[in-house]
Specification:
Layout (H helix, E strand, L loop, with lengths): L1 H9 L3 H17 L1 H5 L10 H27 L4 H39 L3 H30 L3 H6 L5 H4 L2 H17 L13 H14 L3 H10 L14
Helix pairs in contact: 1-2, 4-5, 4-6, 5-6, 9-10
Length: 240
Amino acid sequence: MTQRTVFKIFGSLGPGGTFVTLTEKIIRYVFNAAYDLQNDNEFKASEEAEIAKLRQDFVNELFEMKGQFERQSKSMSQLIKVKAYTVLHKLIERYQKQIIMLEKNKLYKEKTFYQNEENQQRADLASKKLDSVDADVADNLNKMAIHILNPDMNEFKRQNSGTIEERVSQVRAEEFARFWKELKVKNRLFGSNIDDSNDPIIKNHKQELYVKFGEDIADIFESFKYYQIDTTVDSGTTIQ
């Protein structure tokens, strides 16, 4: 933060300032990630509050329909059962469309913001998120519905089937992996096969993964395998 202030001060001082301004641009380009740590101008979007409200509204509606869904989804009548799942999927689809639109607006703004800030690394990250936003939002809403309503998974997937690639994007999987590795380094959980361990400590940390991201644990670890993400850590591992 101090360096950035110094750059701004000298950047306004005539010919010498011109040189320092050029130096600032070079440093930002070469040491983009490190330089970003000193940047006060973090991106904020008005859409974030709208997205948060929509997610809360979605959760509220899930709880409101919970009793009726439980009765209808266990009905002996196949027509009533199908109706219950149809109503659920229409609810998911309605919120999905709204949230995706807002997420895309936010990410377009974020990408432009960091391009203007000459922070290409963050701009590229926003661009990657744009590529997977549809799948990420759909998967997140589905996971919320499953967690709250506990539907019969065969019936649920019958109308909403998809591969692990459709459920979890590579960008999201890498985000999960970074946090998982941080947990393991912090708690000195070293070893190549430790992710598959039944150790209570590992199970507790997997629960932390769920709490942080709201993603199905099985999907998280399946995504690591699918995208060939190595989550092994040792005493010398540092998380970027």
